[in-house]
Design goal:
2 domains; mainly alpha; 7 helices; single chain; 0% strand; elongated
């Protein structure tokens, strides 16, 4: 089902197209360099997500073999149990039951540790990569913070980053629109890590990134509304 999963190749291509548009309109800008970095992260995310989705066969085989050895050892120990003498009191039974329960609990914990080792390794890598997406979202936000709507109202002119000139209302709106697109793509890259990895902690991390990028985009769109309204008013003014 091609439309039920995000295509990592298309995401990388979309980021490359966005970078080309930024470089064409704002050559040499810091925003273009951030978009280039986002493209590199997306390319790595494609490989990381594929690795996370694949089973680690050697680890699974080793965990299964060690688990079988533990169970076999416990079964062998139980089979060699013998009651000393003819009397078997209730106290002896209670002590034997307590010892058996402890052994079962420890054995179960050891087997669970081995069988969940693969998930924990993948979770660690996924969370580290998701944290990287959270960091670049904040970097994108830093680039739009200084682009205030007051620039088109003539109150606080802002030079275009890396361009050496003041941004017009149309250019400022376009700059903010590029920031919003980058934030949206950041959320899409984060989703790649959980498409083939059903883990609650990783999903929570991705949800946090999506909430962050959505909230930052909302602030940007509020700015864009003011900028476009001011630009339209300026064009209609006599």
């Amino acid at each position: 089902m091609p439309y039920r999963h995000l295509n990592a190749e298309r995401i990388v291509e979309t980021i490359a197209g966005l970078q080309a548009r930024i470089d064409a309109r704002f050559p040499g800008s810091g925003l273009g360099r951030v978009c280039r970095e986002l493209g590199q992260i997306a390319a790595k995310a494609r490989e990381r997500a594929a690795w996370i989705a694949r089973p680690i066969i050697p680890l699974r085989v080793a965990a299964a073999l060690v688990s079988l050895l533990i169970v076999a050892g416990l079964a062998g120990a139980i089979s060699r149990l013998r009651v000393a003498g003819e009397q078997f009191s209730l106290l002896d039974f209670a002590q034997l039951l307590e010892s058996g329960i402890n052994d079962l609990v420890l054995t179960g914990a050891a087997i669970w540790f081995l069988l969940s080792l693969e998930t924990r390794i993948k979770r660690h890598r996924a969370l580290a990569a998701i944290h990287e997406m959270r960091a670049i979202a904040h970097v994108i936000d830093m680039h739009q913070l200084t682009k205030a709507p007051e620039t088109v109202l003539g109150q606080s002119p802002t030079a275009g980053e890396g361009t050496g000139r003041v941004l017009s209302s149309e250019e400022l709106a376009l700059y903010l629109d590029y920031c919003s697109e980058m934030l949206s793509l950041t959320g899409k890259v984060a989703v790649l890590y959980v498409q083939g990895f059903d883990d609650g902690a990783a999903r929570d991390g991705v949800n946090d990134v999506e909430e962050l990028t959505t909230g930052l985009s909302r602030k940007i769109w509020q700015k864009m509304t003011v900028v476009r309204s001011a630009g339209e008013a300026a064009r209609l003014a006599p």
